[in-house]
């Protein structure tokens, strides 16, 4: 019989050393390389991105010289991959991380802000300084405080010789747009943008699913029995209990909420209409997806868990990415 627990019963604590140690690509990208990235011929920007990142990695590692007295070509200290969800940006980011020597870090934007929260600003700078590269996945600036902190942090790391690579669904000059008064922080946003070579990657979601499709659901009474077929370590929660519990845990600790689980079950899923719990659920979905934890649910299909108003707002791309991942995790096609 599988071990049945509840996510709502888990109370993870902050461990700064563990946060730093876990700054590496999710296990689903263990085999990611530039060579294993399958480009779509109908979107030439994908092949261009692979070739450019390989060139950049060579220069960043100290190569690229074309003669005894020639210097390596001048490049910016960072690269920024902009594109829709499911085009393989994280795959390329993980591939770049693997090619770089020395001490290096890979994490989501929220993990780096969590590191600042756990260690303090100077402590975070000390922990990351001296790295050959810092990779930031899902780069988002959702409030002015994050804008200023990340601007300062990136500036200090770059000044020390660290290279920066980031992915996002939002071009750097639009970071924060629709989410806070971006015009009041234009200088800070521009400072971040100026450090990156910006590369657009076009294409369709590689999962090849329409995010308007239906995620499968089962009856309330069938959630537990279905869940038992999905693995040895599973968690079953009533949806409202789960959502309430997420409010008591910092999103940086969500990785510990799903650690060791093969699958989770959510009974009574409903459409969320408040932004804060919806964004917390997005953060949990990202951690579930990273760990490839399957989902079994009842109630409203998970592709309808975010209201239409949310899908039309400033966080639209975040919600659409989460829906794509929810469909993947509920259909077993992640």
Automatic annotation (TrEMBL):
GO terms for biological process: cell division. The keyword ATP-binding applies. InterPro entries: ATPase_AFG1-like, P-loop_NTPase. The keyword Lyase does not apply. GO terms for molecular function: ATP binding; ATP hydrolysis activity. SUPFAM superfamilies: P-loop containing nucleoside triphosphate hydrolases (SSF52540). Coiled coil: none annotated. Keywords: ATP-binding, Cell cycle, Cell division, Nucleotide-binding. One of its GO terms (cellular component) is cytoplasm. NCBIfam families: ZapE. This is Cell division protein ZapE. It comes from Agrococcus jejuensis. The lineage of its organism: Bacteria, Bacillati, Actinomycetota, Actinomycetes, Micrococcales.
